[in-house]
Amino acid sequence: MAKRPLLVGNWKMHGDGGDLPTVIAIGEAARRHPAVDVALCLPATLIERAGRVCLGLAIGGQDCHAEPNGAHTGDISAAMLREAGASLVLLGHSERRHDHHENDVLIAAKLRAARAAGLDVMLCVGETAEDHAAGRSAEVVRQQLTRSLAGMGGQGIAIAYEPVWAIGGDRTPDPAEVAAMAGLIRDTVSGVRIVYGGSVTPDNGAALFVDGGVDGFLVGRQSLDAEAFIAILKSIDLATRQISSPS
Ligand code: PGA
């Protein structure tokens, strides 16, 4: 059975109180498209305020610490995110793997902490340009998955396939490549929703969704622009209806 589509925005280190109207506009659009689950992963400073103004979507964090509390200056725990109103958290994003040298062992510990605190997790995996060029994409993604999940089942977890070389630019894999990777992820961990991330736009969204065989997207830059993000939401909703009732 097809899974409910899932569209998640990742604001990264962008956004302040002046951007709450964007959150509200996206929340209103999410209410008009109830067949799609919509979430925004916001900077921690915005989570509580966004939760107060917006009921149409889920609010998420972008990372959490593996410990519930302690002397960890600058970090935030899963329980803190949850208390602020988050219901999910991104883990293993390539920017954290790269900028903060996060490895799969640490990500696995964070994942256990997030689930224990009652947060859903979007676990990000994806190969670098170098691995892609060397034909090692499948091997890298399979290894990230098995090491980061470390025996955890798929309950409360979605997987974002984000090739590092496709993030933040204008290049995406062919939908067929996304479909192959989605198949590999499905074979490795059963029952999870799989989204694609990396330079998704209103123009390429429909093809990546339908031909890429994914359940939705993790969207960076285009989630900061309500109009663009809502256009992606509409195209997912339309494609889902076309798939479930072909003419
Ligand atoms: P992008 O970012 O859509 O701006 O490429 C995606 C991501 O990093 O999650």
TrEMBL record:
Q: What is its main location?
A: cytoplasm
Q: How does it assemble?
A: Homodimer.
Annotated GO biological processes are: gluconeogenesis; glyceraldehyde-3-phosphate biosynthetic process; glycerol catabolic process; glycolytic process
Subcellular location(s) per record: Cytoplasm
Q: Does the keyword RNA-binding apply?
A: no
What is the official name of this protein in its record? Answer: Triosephosphate isomerase
Report the EC number(s), separated by commas if there are several.
Answer: 5.3.1.1
Per the record, its GO cellular-component terms are: cytosol
Q: NCBIfam families from the xrefs?
A: tim
Task: Please state what class of enzyme this protein is.
Answer: isomerase
Q: Which family does it belong to?
A: Belongs to the triosephosphate isomerase family.
Which CDD domains does the entry mention? TIM
Q: Does the keyword Cytoplasm belong to this entry?
A: yes
Pathway note: Carbohydrate degradation; glycolysis; D-glyceraldehyde 3-phosphate from glycerone phosphate: step 1/1; Carbohydrate biosynthesis; gluconeogenesis
InterPro entries per the record?
Aldolase_TIM, TIM_sf, Triosephosphate_isomerase
Molecular-function GO terms, alphabetical: triose-phosphate isomerase activity
Q: Name one Pfam family in it.
A: TIM
| Reactions that this protein is recorded to catalyse | L-erythrulose 1-phosphate = D-erythrulose 4-phosphate; D-glyceraldehyde 3-phosphate = dihydroxyacetone phosphate
- Organism of this sequence: Sphingomonas yabuuchiae
Q: Which UniProt keywords apply?
A: Cytoplasm, Gluconeogenesis, Glycolysis, Isomerase
